[in-house]
Structure formats: C-alpha cells, structure tokens
C-alpha cells in the first residue's frame, strides 16, 4: 500500500470542496489494507484538512 499515492489522489478529489466521500476513498484503497494503514490514512487526511463525508447517493 502506498499511502503517498492514495493521499495525492485524495487531494485531487478534495481540491475544490475539501471533502472526499467514503465511496471515493474506498475506490482509492486496496482491499488488502490493514487496520494500521487505514488509521494512518485517516490521520493523514485530517492533517491535510480533508474531511470524510457520507456518500451522497445513499438515502
């Protein structure tokens, strides 16, 4: 898992709104991510000021 690549893509997605949806984030991450990697990703998102929001397509 390359956290730097995931963060670069997350920055691009969040550039205009400052947010990324859970669906978008899931699409960037490999299925084999371990819990420590997920925790590191959330920490990095917070440090960048990127907020995670619920998917807009859900009722």
UniProtKB/TrEMBL annotation:
One of its GO terms (molecular function) is sigma factor activity. This is RNA polymerase sigma factor 70 region 1.1 domain-containing protein. The lineage of its organism: Bacteria, Pseudomonadati, Pseudomonadota, Alphaproteobacteria, Hyphomicrobiales.
């Amino acid at each position: 898992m390359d956290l730097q690549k995931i963060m670069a893509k997350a920055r691009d997605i969040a550039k205009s709104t400052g947010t990324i949806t859970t669906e978008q984030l899931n699409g960037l991450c490999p299925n084999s991510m371990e819990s420590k990697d997920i925790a590191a990703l959330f920490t990095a998102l917070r440090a960048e000021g990127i907020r995670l929001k619920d998917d807009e397509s859900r009722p």
